[in-house]
Amino acid sequence: MSKKEIDWSNIGFGYVQTDKRYVSNYKDGKWDEGGLTEEANVVLNECAGVLQYAQTVFEGLKAYRTEDGHIVTFRPDLNASRMADSARRLEMPVFPEDRFIKAVEQVVAANADYVPPYGSGATLYIRPYMFGTNPVIGVKPADEYQFRVFATPVGPYFKGGAKPITIRVCDFDRAAPHGTGHIKAGLNYAMSLHAIVDAHQQGYDENMYLDSATRTKVEETGGANFIFITKDNKLVTPKSDTILPSITRRSLVYVAKEYLGMEVEEREVLFEEVKEFAECGLCGTAAVISPVGKVVDHGKEICFPSGMEEMGPVTKKLYDTLTGIQMGHIKAPESWIKVIK
């Protein structure tokens, strides 16, 4: 698709091939210098480690135009750090964090024409990822790896505004204690596919996973962290070693404390508490916050006072403040906004 053919007001949330992507290879114990390429296809041996044993990690972040015309990204240093943690857990070599940020900058700058205009609601989604490339038939880490970054323009996650969704308490487990729930590995998402397809077939938008050890505590959805608002306007977010540390959630916690003067509790959240909250939301890169209107626990409905028509008032204030920081309307904390051009 040509840049000129993109209808920014109607673009969906899917893949559009852009001009350039970044590639670096790891061999003989070191990363090469890497660089941009026009080649979008990846050629691998049939026995590559990623194909046999799912040795792959990834990240997701966005670039967008601010009102004053700059192209920026949001907290890429945290993505770099999280990918490093993910790589270590899967016995993969860490791609240097400073090089990660520079690779993101290069890809965004090289695809600047694909960064949607300010006010369109669309953004440039950036996907850094890494995988084992050499043949591996015995169960062991690969010896060679490839790090890549591509970008694709995407439309707003919710067209026409964010309407509250209905989620169900899931009978499947997302992550085991001492497992890989805290890292962004492809294998975590593969195991969630059956659960989300089943949820959709049953008429639900998402799954609420409980902790696999006791099935009494709220964890996450598999693609987003939970936030709850109490009836006295506190922000509560689940804390667990098996939850992916969402950059959006961490940012919302800071915004709640420092910008809105809210009390924040990061702690274990018992499922029994959910019915007492005033508002509920899912937070992540794609939608920032997806409001939740209803949780269904095996036929028993928990309906939040914020309702099914619109985002709750406190959640909306959090959403507006964070997106205002991202778009340049509100002064950002130091180092949160990385200006590309």
Automatic annotation (TrEMBL):
InterPro entries: Aminotrans_IV, Aminotransferase-like, B_amino_transII, BCAT-like_C, BCAT-like_N, BCAT_family
Residue ranges of the TM segments: none
Catalytic activity: L-leucine + 2-oxoglutarate = 4-methyl-2-oxopentanoate + L-glutamate; L-isoleucine + 2-oxoglutarate = (S)-3-methyl-2-oxopentanoate + L-glutamate; L-valine + 2-oxoglutarate = 3-methyl-2-oxobutanoate + L-glutamate
Enzyme Commission number(s): 2.6.1.42
A GO molecular-function annotation: branched-chain-amino-acid transaminase activity
Enzyme class: transferase
Cofactor: pyridoxal 5'-phosphate
Keywords recorded for this protein, A-Z: Aminotransferase, Pyridoxal phosphate, Transferase
Domain of life according to the entry: Bacteria
Coiled coil: none
Pathway membership, UniProt: Amino-acid biosynthesis; L-isoleucine biosynthesis; L-isoleucine from 2-oxobutanoate: step 4/4; Amino-acid biosynthesis; L-leucine biosynthesis; L-leucine from 3-methyl-2-oxobutanoate: step 4/4; Amino-acid biosynthesis; L-valine biosynthesis; L-valine from pyruvate: step 4/4
Residues annotated with N6-(pyridoxal phosphate)lysine modification: 184
One BP term from GO: L-valine biosynthetic process
Annotated NCBIfam families: ilvE_II (TIGR01123), PRK13357.1 (NF009897)
PANTHER family: AMINO ACID AMINOTRANSFERASE, BRANCHED-CHAIN-AMINO-ACID AMINOTRANSFERASE
Family affiliation: Belongs to the class-IV pyridoxal-phosphate-dependent aminotransferase family.
Protein name: branched-chain-amino-acid transaminase
